[in-house]
Amino acid sequence: MRLSDLTTLGVGGPAADFVLASSEAEIIDYVTSLDAAGQPLLLLGGGSNLVCGDAGFDGTVIAIGNRGIEARVDGNTVEISAAAGEPWDDLVAYAAGSEWAGIEALSGIPGLVGATPIQNVGAYGQEVSHTITRVRALDRRAGQVVELTAAECAFTYRGSAFKESPDRWVVLDVAFRLATDVESEVRYSQLADALGQQIGDPAGAQRVREAVLALRRAKGMILDPRDPDASSAGSFFTNPIVSDLVAASLPAECPRYPAVAGVKVSAAWLIEHAGVTRGWQARAGSRAAVSSKHSLAISNRGGATAAEVIELARSVRERVHAAYGVELTAEPRFVNCSLGPIEG
Questions:
Q1: For position 95, what pLDDT does the model report?
Q2: What is the largest CA-CA distance in the chain?
Q3: Is-catalytic flag, 243?
Q4: How many CB atoms sit inside 10 A of residue 156's CB?
Q5: Active site residue 327
Q6: 315 in any annotated domain
Q7: Would you say residue 317 lies in a domain?
Q8: How does pLDDT run across 44-69, given as a tens digit for each residue?
Q9: 344 in a domain, yes or no?
């Protein structure tokens, strides 16, 4: 089994072994057995946030396939518990279709539920950390299943305790608390424009979902075999959080967003104004290119290798650093490959 067949970016060499864990018990059994034998393993969800090296993976790939959604209404809120192997957008569609508010702006994001707390997935003004109440996970270090509160998940911008210790945790299911009688406020200007509303205005969950899906589709960020831009790992770089001093040195027109510490600035703006146009390639003939619709995405235009993707990502990162002194951080997880440090 080639990793290129298991990931949305479509790069990566062969895996030594592949198993599908279709239940929580199977996930735990496979992981604990391989750990006891000292064998390397790679947990695979939807494969939408991975860049796998051309040499492949000399170990066992475990595809997470446990399914199930349970909902319990409690007054004006509902707690939804979803298995890690549940497709994320299926959960969002279920919630938005019920007009339960809190995750509708995260529509159209590929992958599985279990990956969302790891990355603290976010888009259009919402993050899963806003609604997650608990996460059940296998602690490989302790060899037991534990339940973590939202505080114990230690969520940060596109990060969490799970991301900080990727070899320790295996997410099994995630619980979210959503509102049943209050519409979420629109927090993102592009979404507000699409809805014909102002930032801060409330909007129904299903209406927001439809608007977000349209926005993502226009950017080539909805999986579609007919769209060459859709063969990607989503946004390749996170919006950097910089110091007040660095932010002050950037052009005034560079978009800025609220952040807990420092100033969050637009990676897309930095990329485009560093001379990286949509559709740009690191070199002529490369099969990896910046998406023609969205400057944050790197697309496999057909038969690209991981080496070509990394070459392009390095070039983008180095151009931004040379122009603005800001180092972009890659969002996907790298398996047997790396961007390495910025040269020079």
A1: 98
A2: 59
A3: no
A4: 15
A5: no
A6: yes
A7: yes
A8: 999 999 999 999 999 999 999 999 99
A9: no
Selecting among 2, 22, 23, 158, the annotated active-site residue is 158
pLDDT at site 258:
79
Instruction: Determine which one of 231, 235, 291, 295 is catalytic.
Output: 235
331 is annotated as an active-site residue: yes
Cα 95 to Cα 70, 115, 129, distances in angstroms? 11, 18, 16
Position 155 in a domain? yes
DSSP 288-312: EEE-SS-TTEEEE-SS--HHHHHHH
25 with 80, same domain? no
Q: How far is CA 59 from the centre of its chain?
A: 24
For 174, the enclosing helix (H) or strand (E) is strand 169-179
Question: How many CA atoms lie less than 13 Å away from 63 in the CB half-sphere?
Answer: 17
**How many Cα atoms occupy the beta-carbon half-sphere of 118 within 13 Å?**
25
Q: Rounded to two decimals, what is the model's pTM?
A: 0.93
pLDDT > 90 in the chain, percent: 94
**The last residue of a domain, from among 181, 216, 251:** 216
99 shares a domain with 207: yes
Q: What are phi and psi of 211, to 5 degrees?
A: -70, -40
Instruction: Match 């790069």 to its residue by tokens.
Output: 11
Cβ distance 41 to 31 under 8 Å?
A: yes
The domain spanning residue 270 has which CATH number? 3.90.78.10
> How far apart, in whole angstroms, are the C-alpha atoms of residue 105 and residue 80?
17
Q: Following CA atoms 248, 252, 257, 260 in sequence, which dihedral angle do they give, to the nearest 10 degrees?
A: 10
- The CATH code of the domain that includes 179 is 3.30.465.10
Residue 200 and residue 130 share a domain? yes
Q: How many domains does the chain have?
A: 3
CB 14 within 8 A of CB 2: yes
Domain that holds residue 33: 3-64
